[in-house]
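Notebook, bench 3.
Goal today: get a predicted structure for LysR family transcriptional regulator from Azospirillum lipoferum so we can plan the truncation constructs. The sequence was checked against the plasmid map this morning, with no discrepancies at the termini. Length recorded as 303 residues. Pasting the sequence as submitted so the record is complete.
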Amino acid sequence: MAFDSRLLAGVSVLASVVESGSFTRAGAILGLTASGVSRSVSRLEERIGVRLLDRSTRSLRLTNEGARLYELAAPHLSGIEEAASLAAGAVGQAQGLLRASVNPIFARNVLAPRLPEFAARYPELRLILVQQPDAGDLVAEGVDVAIRFGPQPDSTLSSRLLLETRVLTVASPAYLAAMGRPERPMDLMGHECIQFMDPQRGRPFEWEFRRSHETVMVKAGGRFTFTDADMMVEACLAGLGIAQVLAFAVGGHLAAGALVELFPNWPDETFPLYAVRPSRRLSPAKVEAFLSFCEEIATPRNP
């Protein structure tokens, strides 16, 4: 049976729509208009005889048949991309421009001090670091890879776990001298507990404590809610109240005695850090280089 190049082109367009989330964004990637992308998908549907996308004015959603086609075809599209890279001699060469969105806590405490090493290792790679909410749209922002905290929702995004850091409950010596030290998590209900906003859900994180097979949820209340982790830590250092923070972000403050860990006997509450890409296909060499470097520098600091 003769190979139908039109079928391959149509499946490639469909994959771009799935991975970008819209006809307009897929068109920007492929150099087509949104209407051109739509017509290409329609021709593919006509060619194979099934509807692949449910379209509305607000969203696109794969049908069951479309999801199955994408699941089976995406690895082969990746193989074609890899073959083309091999033919061009580009595999293994991390070069060009990489746009990365990096959570500021990881960027400040882990990545920034090691960037000279990254620059020396990949002299042909240029890096643009941007700050974006952990729930931001990678495709819309033109981001190649993001480093984000928190569980990642199911989507067409590809995610890789980099580390899990402990969540610590801390306060300043000044606060504890004035208000007393809580002896157990449930005692927090009588204290000023500084809240931090979950960017994915739009509400403050719940206060959860774990040890072995035991889990305790505490309704910790407070008048102050932050969206900036550094500002929250500074407020905690100043004696505003009790905060839950990531271990590797406050190691220096703990060592200096500026902050006190309140419940070291509840050590098992952790928070994950993920590397996220806007595609499930084979990652380009420049993206893989950045991800491997982040994995390398994250692992030794995993508390």
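Residues 148 and 274 are 5 Å apart (CA to CA). The first helix runs from residue 5 to 20.
Flagging this for group meeting.
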